[in-house]
Specification:
Largest sheet: 6 strands, parallel
Low-confidence stretches: none
Shape: globular
Radius of gyration: 21 Å
CATH architecture of the largest domain: 3-Layer(aba) Sandwich
Order of helices and strands: EHEHEHEHEHEEEHEHHHHHH
Mean pLDDT: 93
CATH class of the largest domain: Alpha Beta
Number of helices: 12
CATH topology of the largest domain: Rossmann fold
Strand content: 5-15%
Strand order of the largest sheet: 3-2-1-4-5-6
Length: 288
């Protein structure tokens, strides 16, 4: 690869750029963003090699285009790049939802949809912007690719290689499977963290409550510091799967409320033990 174009040079896109540089990849990295200030900041930090908002200039001789912007911007970006796409340029994304992105790409790119590979790096942080980018963000982290029967095998291979150069472990699944999984283990936890902090902050004694909040509150709510626009877009894009998960969690809360209301200590302990065992087993597996 000689030239990689990244739309969105914040945490996700910027970390890809830094990881490639760290790996010794000599491809020119061109950043495209919504504001000149963010692009200049990425340039000043050495995250990207060149910045432009001229789409034709950016895409000339590009090998790979990575869309690392909030998912709601994907249609705008795809429409902008479509007139300037070479037949060999590979397009991929880093969005947290995949069915909506693939449907959008199929509609907009039409005969060039085979050049698009849906992707989702399972890594991030509550901070955003180029200053938050890290060269090791993806090291030993999972990246899910969601090819379709129309996907060009060479395009898929190039995207896999891109992420492997970043140190990631790459797997594949359908977009529908992806969206169901991440509604449960990523999107719902973020909604719960946002909801809890919003609830506490709206109370008359919020200042007092926050003053006594300690490590448990900190750990549970860390992700409530995440990018609001990005999570707004993810939530709306994965609405169907997420509503199912919210209903399932409401049922779990109802069960917990009933156990507490009945002062059922044995039932509460059994629930806590099941959860503790499952959580500890997961943590043990992730650390191996």
């Amino acid at each position: 690869m000689k030239k990689i174009v990244i739309f969105g040079v914040g945490l996700i896109g910027g970390s890809v750029a830094l990881a490639l540089k760290k790996a010794g990849d000599h491809a020119q990295i061109v950043g495209v963003g919504r504001t000149g200030a963010s692009l200049q900041h990425a340039l000043d930090l050495g995250v990207i090699d060149h910045a432009t908002n001229n789409i034709a200039e950016a895409l000339k001789n590009a090998d790979i285009i990575l869309i690392a912007a909030p998912v709601a911007q994907t249609p705008v970006i795809l429409n902008a790049i479509k007139p300037h796409l070479d037949k060999t340029t590979v397009i991929t994304d880093a969005g947290s939802t995949k069915s909506d992105v693939l449907n959008c790409a199929r509609t907009i790119l039409s005969e060039q949809f085979s050049q698009f590979v849906g992707g989702h790096p399972i890594a991030g942080a509550e901070k955003s912007g180029a200053a938050a980018a890290m060269h090791d963000l993806y090291f030993n982290k999972s990246v899910v690719l969601t090819p379709t029967t129309d996907t060009n095998p060479e395009a898929l291979s190039q995207v896999r290689t891109l992420w492997e150069k970043c140190g990631a472990q790459v797997s594949q699944m359908t977009a529908e499977t992806h969206d169901g999984i991440f509604a449960a283990v990523s999107h719902l936890p973020h909604l719960l963290a946002f909801a809890l902090v919003d609830d506490i902050a709206a109370r008359p004694n919020a200042e007092q409550l926050f003053s006594f909040a300690a490590s448990g509150f900190r750990d549970f709510t860390r992700i409530a510091g995440s990018h609001p626009e990005m999570w707004r877009d993810i939530t709306l894009a994965n609405k169907t799967a997420l509503l199912k998960e919210i209903t399932a969690f409401e049922n779990e809360l109802s069960q917990l409320k009933q156990l507490l209301n009945n002062e059922d200590g044995e039932g509460l302990q059994a629930l806590f033990e099941r959860a503790s065992k499952a959580r500890n087993q997961w943590a043990k597996t992730k650390l191996q």
